[in-house]
Amino acid sequence: MSILTNPLDLLVQNLFFELPGLVDRGRVVLKMEGYNVTGSIKIKPALFMIAELERRGLIEPHRSTIIESSSGNLGIALALICSLRGYAFICVTDPNVSAVNLRSIEAYGGRTIIVDSKDANGGYLETRITCIRDLLRDNSDYVWLNQYANEFNARAHEEWTALEILDEIPEVSHLYVGSGTTGTVMGLARRFAELSPDTMVVAVEPEGSVTFDPNRKGRRLIPGIGTSRRPELADPELLDRIVYVPEIDAIRMCHRLARRQGLLLGGSTGSVLAAIAADAAFFDADSTVVAISPDLGDKYMDTIYSPDWVRSSYGTGATMPDDGQAPLPCEPLKEIVARHSREVTIIANRCREVASYRRDQAKQQQTGT
Ligand SMILES: Cc1ncc(COP(=O)(O)O)c(C=O)c1O
Fold first, then answer.
1. Which terminus of the chain is less hemmed in, N or C, by CB atoms within 10 Å?
2. Does the pLDDT at position 320 exceed 70?
3. In the 8-state DSSP scheme, what is residue 316?
4. Ligand 1 pocket residue status of 41, Cβ below 6 Å
5. Which of 201, 131, 135 is nearest to 166 (CA)?
6. Is pLDDT at 124 greater than 70 in this prediction?
């Protein structure tokens, strides 16, 4: 790993994690995106969308203000990029935003506006959009990214994420992707149609989301995945299958992953893995199932990982304090230490040689030889 100077180079491109035991036949591999700077996959579409505005000369540092509706990962990613590039950033959000997300946006220097009147659908999305439109009308230097309709949201995944997967795993039989704006799944579907047409591309939706079916409207509490209005980017023609996951299955999967596999992941990762577990009968011994993990669990301590929140949101039977399953066996720790020590020993020997060379040089200089 080289020494970085720009936080935007902190993009972890090739981190994959295999999950044994989730399905009876085939391999399941997670592409981990939560270790990117700002903690999620959203840094990539944020970069693509702002870079395109810069390329077209539509924004100018220290003059333009970027405005976007987000209650989560995109808002945090935009706040960082805008502060580094000298744009002001306003994130329009609603009372459901978590304290940690709000504080993260503000910590990077973004401004937040919390709308508090509900729209005709009983949510806040339309109120947020109205707020943005009002601000755009009154401020000529404001620019709205509109992630739900912005082609460069999907392009980030078509041009980066898809190739990162195919570079590491050329034979992907099934690709499972959670959908929010649908930028990730649409971008991946387009590139896989070109380079890996036999891969079955599956969009994972929480029950209650209307992205691909307006009749499914219902209560949803897990952020990041699902919508209450169809995103302009969504094109079901590019998908092989859409799986609907009950939120409680996603939450149980998150708890199971933390206890059994030592992975503390976000709710959309739980949804995608719950969809894979439900589809297990479709896979055979040769299947390689890849899933996207957009973020880690640390952002969800007050929701998904809070027994009180789970109980009050889904009922008393919903929490699983202990499902009786032991964590997967782990090799003795001395072997892990030894594995890393072997690498470090080589470095130590190299450092000793350099130190001894420098000592000899210094001695020669002192004695004038
Ligand atoms: C937590 C989370 N889940 C799912 C997704 C996928 O969303 P989208 O369809 O907007 O690309 C994202 C964002 O990329 C996310 O941050």
1. N
2. no
3. G
4. yes
5. 201
6. yes
